[in-house]
Amino acid sequence: MELIKPQFGLIFWMAISFLVLIFLLAKFAFPIILKSLKEREDSITNALNSAEKAKKEMAALQADNEKLLVQARAERDTMLKEARDTKDAIVAEAKNKAQAEANKILATTRETINTEKNAAITELKNQVAAMSIEIAEKILRQELSNDEKQKALMDNLMKDISLN
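^ that's the sequence the OP posted. Answer follows.
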């Protein structure tokens, strides 16, 4: 029963031991513990501040990246439009040159054809004239081969002349 009912001396010495322990802890252990808790709190605060700062920087970088991406897309669209316009201009110029060249070749060909046609017609006329002269010459030789035919031809020519 002595354990259930402590005596005054035991309580006194227990209280003194407890107070000494509290004093020693307050003198030596609590400052170190409080210091480490304060350091821990400061490091956590710094980490949170750094995280918030990094978050703000990331948001700013993301906004800058979006601006750059929009600008790059606009430049790309402009470059593609310029390339299409240049392509269309080159194609139109090539078509115009080809059309002009085709027209030039066509005109030259027509001129050549007309020249050759006229030359052929002239040659044909010359041949027809030569053949007509030959035929007339042969006919006249046959007709004028005897004297009676010559006199008859002269009489007919004289009648034609006097009639006109």
